[in-house]
Amino acid sequence: MALTDKIKKDIATKKQQKLDGIEYFKEEILITDALKEDYDNAVISIDSDLLGDISATNDTLVGVQSAYQDRINVGCRTDLFWRITGYDSGTGNYSLIVDKLSSIGYGSSILFVDTLGGITTYADGVVEIPGISGDNLHGIKYYNEPYLKDIGDTTIGSFIGIVGTASTVLAIMSQSSEELVSVFDIGNLVISSKNGVFSGSSNKIVGFGTTTITGFTTSIMDDVVGIATTSFDVSTIILENYTVGFSTLPESDGSYTEFTVVTDPDTFEQTKTRFRYQVKFTKNPFSPQTIGIMDSSTVGIGTFIEYDNSAKPPTSQSWKPELEGIEKGGEKIKEPKVGAGRIYNIVGFTDQPSILGVSKEKGTTATTSTLTGLYSAITPPGGCSAIETALTNAISLRDSTEAALSSGSNCIQSKIDAANALRKERSEYSLKIWGLRQSIGGESDRVDEYEALETYIGNTEETINGTTSCL
Which one-letter DSSP state was computed for residue 187? Predict the structure, then answer.
């Protein structure tokens, strides 16, 4: 018993030393975080200015889009066209329907009939068929890494995903899906950017698996994953509860659903303070990296930012940059395609679908063996001159505002350079905080070991005293 008492006292002393060390590291974190705060505020100030420039420019793109739509609404142009829905080789007849231009696609391939009777096929997912033009939106792309996240930030990673209705299998659309799930844990929560996928605000991870993704065009797969393929093996998340909705590529509005994995907030708040501060000693401070487009909710985020006008999907995605260039499935792993997105304008036509000169409405069907003579010129109503002038002015404003982004007093690159310089200085404080949190993690692990040993000694004493209970 004397030996046991000595061990208990020694263990209690060492555990208290570790707890005292944790308190010291916590104080150092608070001091360092206070020093970092000035840089946080400075970064947020420049980012807010940048977002103002970007928003003002994107507003002019929306203005052009609205001006084009006004021209359609007034009747100066039409957004209708003949579409082939079938062909009877026996009779040589085409089945036609009057369809409407859509800025979000059509859900299938398009057989477009032009005014000369020509046929052009547009694949599923292609939005810019005749009558539609696009403008690339502007954005600030951020690269965020674990060491920069605040202690209270429970976000682990984000990805584009697909899941069916009444399913528990959520597929991660990423070249790094296998590596990405390695940082997720059973019990983490999954949040969907699309409403109605889950019955509640989130779903819980209960396991992981794999699946093969098929059925999407190479262009869609290239947009989302970065490789042009029709078959793709990915990791999956097994959900606790069945979905009530679905997520596909793309959605009916042309967007992609973003899924975000977070630590269960209730569990996070209920744990001991040392657990909330700690980071496992082996955790990589730079991976997974999350790439996204800054908005008002993410001002100040990131270890680095850059201007984007690429039209890539504006959905946040996480990956492991240390894997870049490594071959996987016959393709080298690349940075996820993330951009500010693209806006589409309904330019319309000066000729409208008709039969024998009589215009036809959307949904009108026809059967014909010839595809010529199916359009007639629109008779513009009054006021089209003013509509055209408004459109010209909107385009001029867009062009001048876009040009101002790269020149003059509104040159955003100088602001981006300044924001990144501040981020670099801020990173030194953030890395110090990360190191302190890792130290807490190491000390906390030793505290857990000491507590386990104390429990064992206590149970041993109970057995010696004739008790057989054991935890």
Answer: T
